[in-house]
Amino acid sequence: MRHEKAGQVLELARMLASTAEGLTLDEMAQRLSVSRRTVERMRDAVRDVFPQLEEVVEWPVTRFRIPSGLDHLYQAPTAEEMAALSASAELMDRQGATERARALRSLEQKVLSATRAAARRRLAPDLEALLQAETIAVTAGPRPFEEASVLSAVREGLKALSTLRFRYEGGSTPGRVREVTPFGILFGRSNYLVAAEDAGIGPRNWRLDRIFEVEVTGTPGFRPEDFSLQAYADESFGIYQDDTHNVVLKILPHGAEDALRWRFHAKQRLEPQPDGSVMVRFRASGMRELAWHLFTWGDKAQVVAPQALQDMLVDEIEVARRTHVRF
After folding, report:
1. 67-71: long-range contacts, CB 8 A cutoff, minimum separation 24
2. Cβ proximity of 245 and 309 under 8 Å
3. Fewer CB within 10 A of the terminal residue: the chain, N end or C end?
4. 8 Å CB contact between 285 and 240
5. How buried is 10 (Cβ within 10 angstroms: 0-12 exposed, 13-18 middle, 19+ buried)?
6. Alpha carbon distance 271, 279 (integer Å)
7. Could you say which residues of the chain have pLDDT below 70?
8. C-alpha distances in angstroms, 144 versus 48, 87, 96, 191, 192?
9. CA 49: distance to chain centroid?
10. 61, β-bridge pairs
11. Which helix (H) or strand (E) holds 194?
12. Where on the phi/psi map is residue 96: left (φ > 0), alpha (ψ -120 to 50), or beta?
C-alpha cells in the first residue's frame, strides 16, 4: 500500500511538471480519481519532495506546477509504456497513417535517448519480450490519406489561425479553388479537414485526399472561440454530418452482453430491460454510417427510431438484393 501511495504522488508530480499553466486541485482530483481532501494531502507530499512546486494564483482559482521539470531519476519509462508507444506507431503505419507513425517513432527515439544507460539496460529485456508477444489485428477498411505536405499546411493554418486556400476535387463543383478557416482534423477511416468557407454557414468536412495545392494565406480566420472539435465529432455517429435524430435501438437478449460492452455513441444511454434486452438511446447525425454498422449486428438489433434510419436500412437491403440477384 505504501508503494501504491508513493506511485500516486510521483504520478501527480509528473502531471504538475508536464503542464505550463498548472493544475487546480479539482483538476488533479479528477485526473487521479480521488477526493479533493486526498489530493490536498498528495499535493503536500509533492511539495515535501519537490520544493520547487509553484503556486500560481489566478483569482478565483489557484494552480500548481513544477516549472523546472523532474530529474531523469523520476522519468524513466516502463517497458509497458514503451511497448504501447511502439504498438501505436505500428498500428498507424499499417493503417496508412505514415506521418503520425513517423512522429511517434521519433518520440520513441527521443524518450530512449533521454533515458540513462543503466535504465535502458534494465528496460531492454522486458521491452523485447513484450514486443515479441504482442501484435495488433488490423481490420479491413480504407487506408486513410496522410500526405505530408497537406497535413503540414493544415496544421500550420491551425496554429497560426490563418485561412487555407486549396483546389478541392470533391463536392458538387470539383476543381474549384476554396478559401476556408480550419477548425481541426478528424482522423478515422478517412481523414477530414473540418473548416468553414463562410462564417454564416458553419463548418463542414473536407476530405484530405481531395485537397490539392494547399497554401496558408496568412489571412486571419473567423473560428468561433466556443467551438469544440470533440463536441462537433460527437454530433455524428461517424464522419458524415447531416440531419440530427434521436436514435433508439433495441438490442435483443442474445446480443445484450455485447451491447453492454459496446460504445455506439459518446453520449449513449443503456437501459437493460426486464426481458433481457437492452435499449440504447443517443442523439446523432450520420444515419447512413449507422445503418451500415447495424448490419454487423445481424438479428441482434432492432431500430425503434427514427423512421429515417429504418427506411435507410430497408433501402440498403434492396440495393444489395438488386445487385446480387441471380439471373
Report:
1. 68/17, 69/17, 70/13, 70/14, 70/17
2. yes
3. C
4. yes
5. middle
6. 5
7. 1-4, 71-74, 136-145, 238-242, 327
8. 49, 18, 6, 6, 10
9. 34
10. 58
11. strand 192-196
12. left
- Looking at the DSSP bridge assignments, the partners of residue 176 are 168
Is 270 within 8 Å of 280 (Cβ atoms)? Answer: yes
DSSP letters for 201-263: T--EEEEGGGEEEEEEEEEE----TT--HHHHHHTBSSS-----EEEEEEE-GGGHHHHHT--
* Residue at grid coordinates 508530480: 13
C-alpha cell at 172: 458538387
Report pLDDT for 232: 84
- Joined grid coordinates for residue 44: 503536500
CA distance 222 to 157: 12
What Å distances lie between residue 259 and 8, 62, 65, 309, CA to CA? Answer: 34, 42, 42, 19
* Alpha-carbon gap, residue 183 to 195, rounded angstroms: 5
Question: What pTM, to 2 d.p., does this model score?
Answer: 0.62
Written as nine digits, the cell of 228 is 469544440
Cα separation, 241 vs 119, in Å, equals: 49
Instruction: Give alpha helix (H) positions in the chain.
Output: 2-17, 25-32, 36-49, 79-95, 98-113, 117-133, 148-160, 229-234, 256-260, 287-294, 307-324
C-alpha cell at 164: 487555407
C-alpha–C-alpha distance, residues 322 and 206, integer Å: 32
Structure-block grid coordinates of residue 41: 494531502
What pLDDT does residue 167 have? 95
**285 pairs with which residues across the strands?**
236
Separation of alpha carbons 310 and 302, rounded Å = 9
